[in-house]
Each structure stands twice: as C-alpha cells, then as structure tokens.
Amino acid sequence: MAVVIYFSRAGQNKQHGAAQYINVGNTALVAGKLAAQLGCPAVDLQAIPAYAADYAATLQRTKTELAQAAAVQLAPLTVDLTAQTQFFLGFPIWWRTLPQVVVTFLQQVDLAGKQLYPFCTHEGSGFGRSLDALQKLAPQAQLLPGLAVRGSNAYKADQALINWLQSLQLK
C-alpha cells in the first residue's frame, strides 16, 4: 500500500526570485495531485509550533534549526504507517537540503524494507543535497528515483507526475 507523506508551508514563499504570498504550499499542491493519481492518502507533517507565514522569520528559524540539527516537534500523524510499503515523501528544499521537520520524521519512523520515493519543490536547486541526507537517514529503505518540481510550477505539475509514475511503472 502507498501513502504520500509531505511537509509544506503556505504564506510568503520565494517564487521567481521574490517572496510572494501563497495560500497553499507548493509541496502540498504536488502532494495532493500525486495522492489523487495514486488513489492513496496524503498526510501532512505539521511542525509544532507552525512556521511563520513571514518569509524572513521562517528563513531565520530554519537556518537555526539546520545549524543546530534541531529536532522539530511534530503533530501526531493521522494514518497508521505500519501497513504501508510505498512511501512518497515530499518536501521543499531549504538550505539545499531537507527541512528539519522531515529529518525529525525520518528519525521517528522505521522505513526498513520500505520503498521510498522522494519528491521535492525548489526554486532552482533541484534536490540539492537532500538525496544524500535521505540515504543516511533511511539506510534500510529502498531509495527510488525521485521528482524535483520547481515550486513556481507546482500548480501545473500534473504531466510531470504522470511521466514520473510511468517511469517507475506505477501508472
């Protein structure tokens, strides 16, 4: 069984080189489209406290979290992950790597023997260093080819998702 697990943040986000306000986070848009195509649940990782809507404040917090390798408290998940075999893990690229929210999740869940399909949103860095981080955080998982979507194109990622799933022979 498959599940889409993702972290996303609405509010001010960098798009086309400038901070712009968005009502739904870029990764959430892609995750929703992916879950619909797969016919599986999408589960949002929620940080406690939530990140600020203000871009500058979020940058400062995330920079500190990364520098300190800080664990981020997560709200309880709404789905039982034990029966899942395919994990589609979505995240924005922050500081060229995984957000600490995702790091905390990976430290809390056992993905041994599971298939891990990463997808990310970014504004020019692609996956950055996140795939190396995923391999280190989930060494017992089978890390499969991922999909990087430019955040400013998240609203029109449907065909990219179809192509990715077809390349994985999942659609």
TrEMBL record:
Cross-referenced Gene3D superfamilies = 3.40.50.360
Q: Which Pfam families match?
A: Flavodoxin_4
Q: What are the leading ranks of the lineage?
A: Bacteria, Bacillati, Bacillota, Bacilli, Lactobacillales
Give this protein's Gene Ontology molecular function annotations: FMN binding; oxidoreductase activity, acting on NAD(P)H
Q: Could you tell me which InterPro entries the record lists for this protein? A: Flavodoxin/NO_synth, Flavoprotein-like_sf
Query: Per its record, how is this protein called by name?
Result: Flavodoxin-like domain-containing protein
Pinpoint the Flavodoxin-like domain residues: 21-166
Q: Which species is the source of this protein? A: Loigolactobacillus coryniformis subsp. torquens DSM 20004 = KCTC 3535
The record ties this protein, via SUPFAM superfamilies, to:
Flavoproteins
